[in-house]
């Protein structure tokens, strides 16, 4: 069953809260989460700010109860009232009790009406246990209670804490098992770009058992890319059918219930961004710098883990003509608050500007991008499906390694992985080797302009 309500935190906020809520004295502590929302039909809260309740300000702190002054809630109201954000009152259970107690229920009944009287239409409460697990519930203005089905934190590892499995704590299913499939059945994957690397990426997402798969692409099938886009046929190319429509037609045969959403739109449009915002994990498989910039902003604004994949075949000039210098693939994993694709130089202001200028000659731009597999060669139908599938598989394995850890070393050492097939070499770059710049978009959610980009504020655009 797909989650009806979710709450997401950055790794920094989660670590800050765990340190504050468990100071080592075995007594409860508290904080207030100020949360934005994801636009669209999905009820998803994003922790934007945290108000820590000073331990010494509490009138009473014991292992099972806590009394703290309303001034900290007032601080949170000041932060959230202008944008009508949501407040979630968080406290610790040092004993490890994995449910709301009667004391918690009584406290919510007394405090929630006061918060609603101040502002807003959705607030809640949450508990953290010593292992870092968080579970939560929300309240409407009418007093209806909504369990938060999923609390997520993206760091070097991906943490998904399910309301119905809160008693299992931080223990995660073993990778490659039916229990992993069960967890995936409640998550939504978004694949941006459904071409060379995107089609095998979407295929894996469908076959692995993601409960919902969203695919975004505005392009159409052509004869020259039949040799690298799986599930496409000659008839599809002759009819110039949309890539997402072709994939959706095949995907619906995989399961009895509908699960695949085809979004025929450029990722640079509002409709595409709003669709991607409904996901739990992003897979970026585009071949443009601006597409990757949008994916970067999506990850920050909606607190989503992002996996970006790219391939290249650089060439060298020899006495006999052009020859392969290397056959490479790159997978970058980005989490909100860590280093971005921009921080890592995957795209730069110069490359973004060059692409924008290329719009004056769109046809030349499209040809330049599509011919980019083999550098220095005008090959229009490169035989790269094996390379694409190798890279797409490595990208999906990075997701599995973080959501259902199987590595014998820390995932923090694999912010970027690169393989070089000609040289027979693979390397990894740790998150700490990149310099992360602070993003003003973190947990921006539905704030306009969307993703901080004015052109996405338009109801319709044709980029």
UniProtKB/TrEMBL annotation:
JAB domain boundaries: 12-123
Molecular function as annotated in GO: nucleotidyltransferase activity
Family annotation (InterPro entries): JAB_dom_prok, ThiF_NAD_FAD-bd, Ubiquitin-activating_enz
THIF-type NAD/FAD binding fold domain mapped to chain residues: 177-312
Record's keyword terms, sorted: Hydrolase, Metal-binding, Metalloprotease, Nucleotidyltransferase, Plasmid, Protease, Transferase, Zinc
One Pfam assignment: Prok-JAB
Protein name: ThiF family adenylyltransferase
Species: Azohydromonas lata
Lineage: Bacteria, Pseudomonadati, Pseudomonadota, Betaproteobacteria, Burkholderiales
């Amino acid at each position: 069953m797909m989650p009806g309500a979710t709450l997401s935190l950055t790794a920094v906020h989660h670590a800050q809260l765990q340190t504050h809520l468990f100071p080592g004295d075995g007594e409860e502590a508290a904080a207030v989460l100020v949360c934005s929302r994801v636009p669209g039909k999905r009820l998803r809260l994003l922790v934007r700010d945290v108000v820590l309740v000073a331990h010494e300000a509490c009138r009473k702190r014991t292992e099972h109860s806590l009394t703290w002054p309303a001034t900290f809630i007032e601080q949170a109201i000041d932060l959230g009232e202008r944008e009508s954000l949501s407040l979630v009152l968080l406290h610790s259970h040092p004993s490890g009790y994995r449910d709301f107690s009667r004391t918690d229920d009584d406290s919510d009944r007394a405090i929630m009406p006061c918060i609603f009287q101040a502002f807003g239409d959705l607030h809640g409460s949450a508990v953290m246990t010593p292992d870092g697990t968080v579970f939560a519930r929300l309240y409407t203005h009418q007093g209806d209670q909504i369990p938060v089905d999923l609390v997520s934190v993206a760091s070097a590892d991906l943490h998904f804490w399910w309301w119905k499995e809160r008693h299992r704590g931080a223990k995660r299913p073993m990778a490659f098992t039916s229990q992993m499939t069960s967890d995936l059945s409640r998550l939504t994957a978004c694949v941006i770009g459904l071409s060379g690397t995107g089609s095998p990426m979407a295929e894996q997402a469908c076959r692995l058992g993601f409960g919902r798969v969203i695919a975004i692409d505005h392009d159409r099938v052509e004869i020259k890319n039949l040799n690298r886009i799986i599930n496409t046929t000659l008839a599809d190319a002759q009819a110039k059918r949309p890539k997402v429509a072709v994939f959706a037609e095949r995907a619906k045969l995989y399961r009895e219930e509908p699960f695949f959403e085809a979004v025929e739109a450029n990722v640079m449009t509002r409709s595409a961004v709003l669709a991607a915002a409904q996901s739990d994990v992003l897979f970026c498989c585009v071949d443009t710098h601006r597409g990757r910039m949008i994916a970067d902003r999506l990850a920050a604004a909606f607190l989503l883990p992002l996996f970006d994949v790219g391939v290249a075949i650089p060439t060298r000039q020899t006495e006999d003509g052009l020859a392969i210098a290397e056959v490479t693939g790159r997978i970058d994993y980005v989490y909100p608050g860590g280093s971005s694709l921009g921080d890592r130089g995957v795209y730069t202001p110069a490359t973004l500007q060059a692409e924008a200028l290329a719009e004056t000659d769109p046809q030349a731009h499209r040809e330049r991008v599509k011919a980019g597999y083999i550098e220095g060669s005008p090959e229009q139908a490169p035989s790269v499906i094996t390379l694409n599938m190798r890279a797409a598989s490595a990208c999906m394995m990075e997701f599995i390694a973080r959501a259902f850890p199987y590595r014998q070393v820390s995932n923090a050492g694999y912010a970027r992985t690169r393989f070089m097939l000609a040289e027979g070499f693979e390397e990894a770059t740790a998150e700490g080797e990149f310099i992360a710049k602070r993003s003003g978009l973190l947990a921006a959610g539905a704030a306009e302009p969307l993703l901080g980009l004015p052109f996405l504020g338009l109801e319709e655009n044709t980029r």
